[in-house]
Model the fold of this input.
Amino acid sequence: MSSTNMAFRLTTLEDDGREIYVSGSFNNWDPTDPRYRMKKIAEGKYELKVSLPSEISYPIEYKYAKGNWENEEITRTGQKTKNRTLTKRVRSVSDKVARFRYNGNSDYNRFLPIIEIVNDFLFPSLPSKRAIQILLPYNYYINPDKRYKVLYLNDGQNLWDKSAPFGNWSLDQKIAQLSAGGKNNVIVVAIDHGGQERIKEFTPINGTRVGKADGQKYLRDIVNCVKPYIDSKYRTLPQRENTGIGGSSMGGLISIYAGIMFPDIFGKLMIFSPSLWIIQNSHIETLRFFTPFQTKIYLYAGGKESASMLPSMRRLKHNLEAQDFFQKVIDVKLTIDPKGRHTETKWGKEVVSAVTWLFYS
Done:
């Protein structure tokens, strides 16, 4: 009996360590047939070279699955896919799969990040202790050789805690959403604020409308204590181009100053509705932002915030883009929601777009 050689080539955003099989009318739809187990050739890339009997009848139908039909391919939104069809003999076929079911489930829960907590982490310059929470990609421990970019976020208490008094970002769900789409290359480090000391810790300079400033001490402790701890314990990509910091309101303001003080550490800034109003002549102060390094900055503001928010953000964008270091080194994206208010819920809705632009575009 003669046969025909052909290759199945698959690209999938969901690469979680489970083996992938091709199943179809040519092998009685057996999703565990070892002859049709695909070989991983690169991250998210699989290949299977097989010999199909020359007598096989066309069209043939097939699908991809991870070992059984409870783990078959599905659409990006979790819907069952139609069978794939080959109408004639070919040498190769190239397919894409957005997601796979997981033991019959198609929701995002299995993509939820692994959360590890360090309580009483010392910030020696302040001095104070607080929790830092590390959100690892759901498959972090499945891929032991992979290294990750890192995003540090301020106001950790407001990011996914359902008991937060002013709402939260639902950040764990947002990370799951990103991971389900194949965007799972970033570790998020959520740093709790200092409670009653929050305003002081997030105030970057003295002489503002809110009094004493400990913001520079806070940032030095992130750079000198938190980041070295994260880089030593987890598989990070520690270079500045792989490191970001961000926050909202006062947390957004102090993130701007992280870029001003430590341009050699932070190459990505995520700034939501920063409290520029506390700094007198903030449009002049932000001219201090000057870096010779390639830097990406995502700005967001809502049209239903204070009257000064949108003008301040437009000036900030202009000041950032106006610096001239022989070439353009700062890439700024400003997103404005005309109906957006100064709320945790709105900032949470923006985080997927911000992380995607900062780390995946």
Observations:
- The chain is about 20% helix and 30% strand.
- The chain has a mean pLDDT of 91.
- The first strand starts at residue 3 and ends at 12.
